[in-house]
Every structure is written in C-alpha cells, then in structure tokens.
C-alpha cells in the first residue's frame, strides 16, 4: 500500500508520468497496480498499456520448438524441489528461489548448458536472473517499452529509470540521452 501511495503521489506531480516496466505477466500488473494512472509494460515490453487505453501487444511469435524448451524446463523443475516453470505468452521462466541453494545452483548450471544446445539457432535468448532463468525471443526486451514511452513523450521530456536486475540494463540503454538511470541494489553496474 505504501508503494502504491508513493507511485500515485509521484504520478500526480505536474508534468510527471509514471510507467512500470516489468518482466511479469500483464495479469499481475493489472492486479497489483489496478487503481494507478500509470503506463504498464509487461513481459519485458511484449505488452504495453498507456493510461486510458487497452493492452497492445508487440509482434513476437511463440518461438519455434517452444514445447521442447518447456519440456526441458519441466524436467528440471521435477528434479529441483522448490523450482517451478512459469509460462508467459512468448517466454518461459524457470524459478528456483525456494530450492536448496547448492543443489539448485548445480542443476541450473547444467540446465543452462542444455538450454544453450536446445536454443542454438532458434532465435532464443537465455537470461540469468536472481534465482531465475528465462528463455525469450531475441530482441524482446524492456527497450521496447522505453521506445514506446519515448515516442509518446515531448521532445524536452526528461526520463528517470530505476531498476534492480539485468533486464533493466536493456531499458537503461534504450532511454533517450535526456535521462537518468538508477541501478537499485548491489552486484551490478
């Protein structure tokens, strides 16, 4: 509730627009930020919804051999207690936050090698996050949302982007020069 109040106050400032860019599915963003007058951008920019509008989807097809990748992730989720696979529109995420650290890390390293083989030549990218591996089409990134936001902004707009993981670096790189990027937390540039 405190975060929502903060975002609502920020968005209420004259000349300020708030956009939330996430790797999470749009159903989660709708639920979490329902009463907010903010732009929402889900699944690393695959989906965008500007205030007062409906969700719009970027043109990315379900990757070839998606079922094969899903099956491989499923096999590892069965091996690693506490792990699960999240299926989104065009991405798959292997979450292992609840798994035993040592065993989970060994299994994830093995899984990364298998994914490199399976995804090779398919136009898929494997992202390594905080106890999550995500497989997505190459070119799908939070930069798509940054481009859409910038295209709808005035030429003198100043952008401030805050993020805490590797996927936010794509957003930072895509911002116009009139901006400030803030990395939250430790362990990265």
Q: What's the short version?
A:
The protein has 189 residues and is an alpha+beta fold. It has helices spanning 2-11, 26-32, 66-79, 101-119, 143-151, 166-174; strands at 19-21, 39-42, 47-49, 56-57, 84-87, 92-95, 124-129, 132-137, 159-163, 179-183. It has a four-stranded mixed sheet with strand order 1-2-3-4, sandwiched between helices. A four-stranded antiparallel sheet has the order 5-6-8-7, covered by helices on one side. It has a two-stranded parallel sheet with strand order 9-10.
Word description of this protein:
This protein has 189 residues and is α+β, with helices and mostly antiparallel strands. It contains 6 helices and 10 strands. It has helices at residues 2-11, 26-32, 66-79, 101-119, 143-151, 166-174, and strands at residues 19-21, 39-42, 47-49, 56-57, 84-87, 92-95, 124-129, 132-137, 159-163, 179-183. The chain has a 4-stranded mixed β-sheet, with helices on both faces. It has a 4-stranded antiparallel β-sheet with strand order 5-6-8-7, covered by helices on one side. The chain has a two-stranded parallel sheet with strand order 9-10. α3 (66-79) runs antiparallel to α4 and α5 (143-151) packs parallel to α6 (166-174). The longest helix is centred in the middle third of the chain and has 19 residues, at 101-119.
